[in-house]
What does this fold into?
Amino acid sequence: MRALRSMLGLKLSDRIRNDAIRERCGVKEDIVTRIEKGMLKWFGHVERMNKRRLTKQIYECSVNGVVGRGRPRQTFHDQKGKVQKKGQVRSTLNRWACMKRLMSVDEAKVVC
It folds into this structure.
């Protein structure tokens, strides 16, 4: 939103709503939604990759080592799971259970 405001020459003190600024700039959706869609696209792309590709190997690897203090960093899988729950991505593996529960990360891998 800071970038959009600067393009229009507005300041926070002007107190103009974010949706009005997006409308003036011609942006239909907010940046967070665009990033989340991109994450899901990237997930599907990587899941369909050949196992020998370096990108796929890095995506599937796990790193051993000492964990630092504080809250653990969120992984791509954690973020993608949140996006799936937020977007209400339904399970399609079992037709009858499809309406009742959301798709897990493992089910999404199978679907891809």
Summary: Residues 31-47 form the longest helix (17 residues). Helices lie at 2-8, 18-25, 31-47, 54-60, 76-86, 105-111.
